[in-house]
Design a protein that fits this description.
69% helix; mainly alpha; 12 helices; MetI-like fold
Length: 290
C-alpha cells in the first residue's frame, strides 16, 4: 500500500514587518532618522507656535537650555525652529531635484538601450558634454546668470546629476536588452515603449533606487555648499547650509547655532547611506555573486 505523505505547510506570507527586519539594526536606525527629517520637513513648520522669520527677542548665540533647546542664532531666534524650517528646503529641494535627475536619466537610458545605435550614440555624447563641466562651476554659472530661486536651484541640481544617473541606468539597460527574453519580445512584434517599460525597467528598479539615494546625498551636499557661499536659499528663508553661514560667528565659542545645522546635514547623509547599504535583499544578492 502506497504511503501517504502529508503536504508541506504553506509558507507564511511575508508582511511589512518581515520586510523591515531585512534592514538590520543600522538600516533601521538610518530609516528612522530619514523618516524623522522627512516628517520634520512636511509637518514641522506647521507645528511651530511662533514665526522664525521675525527678529528674536532672546540674546544672540545663547547656549542650549530649557528656554531654547538648541540655543539661539545671530538674531536671537530659536535654533530648533530654524533647523526644522530649514529641513523643508534642504530635504524638499534636494529630493525634488534628485527625482527629476534620476527620472530623466533613467528614461533617456531606457530609450538609448531599446532604440537604434544612432540614438544611443547621440544621447551619450550630449550627456558626456555635461559631464565634462565641473559641477560646482556649472552651478555657480547658472546661479549667477539666472538667480538663486528655488526652481532654478532644482533645475541646476537636476541638470548636473542627469548624466550620472543616465550612465548607471544605461549600463544596466544595455545588458538586459541583450538577454533572450527581450529578443523574444521583439520577435513577437513588441514596440520600443513596451520593451522599455515592461522588459527592461522592472529589472533595473532596485539598482536605480540605490543610485537615487546616492544622488540625493550628492544633491544635499551641493545645495548646502551653495547656500554656505550665499548663492543658495536666500533670506528670510534658510536651509541648513545657510544656517551654518549665518551663524559662523559662533564657531569660536563652540556655539550650538553653527554646530547643530552641520550635524543635521551629517545625520541626513549618513542615514541615507545606512538605508542604501542595508536595503532588503542586498545580502542575498551578494551571496549570489560569489
Amino acid at each position: 500500500m502506497a504511503s501517504i505523505t502529508a503536504a508541506p505547510p504553506p509558507e507564511p506570507k511575508r508582511g511589512r514587518l518581515h520586510w523591515l527586519a531585512g534592514f538590520g539594526v543600522s538600516g533601521l536606525l538610518g530609516l528612522a532618522v530619514l523618516l524623522f527629517w522627512m516628517l520634520a520637513a512636511v509637518f514641522g513648520p506647521w507645528l511651530l507656535s511662533y514665526s522664525t522669520a521675525s527678529t528674536g527677542t532672546s540674546n544672540v548665540f545663547m547656549p542650549i537650555g530649557a528656554a531654547h533647546w538648541l540655543g539661539t542664532d545671530y538674531l536671537g531666534r530659536d535654533m530648533l525652529a530654524r533647523v526644522i524650517e530649514g529641513a523643508r528646503y534642504t530635504v524638499g529641494v534636494a529630493l525634488l531635484a534628485t527625482l527629476v535627475a534620476s527620472g530623466t536619466g533613467t528614461v533617456l537610458a531606457l530609450l538609448a538601450a531599446a532604440s537604434g545605435r544612432w540614438i544611443d550614440a547621440t544621447l551619450s555624447r550630449c550627456l558626456d558634454t555635461l559631464t565634462a563641466i565641473p559641477s560646482k562651476m556649472f552651478a555657480l554659472i547658472m546661479v549667477a546668470g539666472f538667480g538663486s530661486s528655488v526652481p532654478m536651484l532644482v533645475l541646476t541640481a537636476a541638470i548636473i546629476y542627469v548624466p550620472g544617473a543616465y550612465r548607471i541606468a544605461r549600463s544596466l539597460a544595455v545588458n538586459i536588452n541583450a538577454l533572450d527574453y527581450v529578443t523574444v519580445a521583439r520577435t513577437r512584434g513588441e514596440g520600443t515603449l513596451y520593451i522599455m517599460l515592461r522588459e527592461i525597467l522592472p529589472n533595473i528598479v532596485g539598482p536605480m533606487l540605490a543610485d537615487l539615494g546616492l544622488r540625493f546625498v550628492y544633491t544635499v551636499l551641493l545645495l548646502a555648499s551653495l547656500s554656505f557661499l550665499g548663492l543658495g536659499i536666500q533670506p528670510p528663508a534658510a536651509d541648513w547650509g545657510s544656517l551654518v553661514r549665518e551663524n559662523i560667528g559662533a564657531l569660536a565659542m563652540g556655539g550650538a547655532s553653527v554646530i547643530v545645522p552641520a550635524l543635521a546635514i551629517a545625520s541626513l547623509t549618513i542615514a541615507v547611506n545606512l538605508v542604501i547599504d542595508n536595503l532588503p535583499g542586498g545580502a542575498a544578492r551578494e551571496k549570489g555573486t560569489r
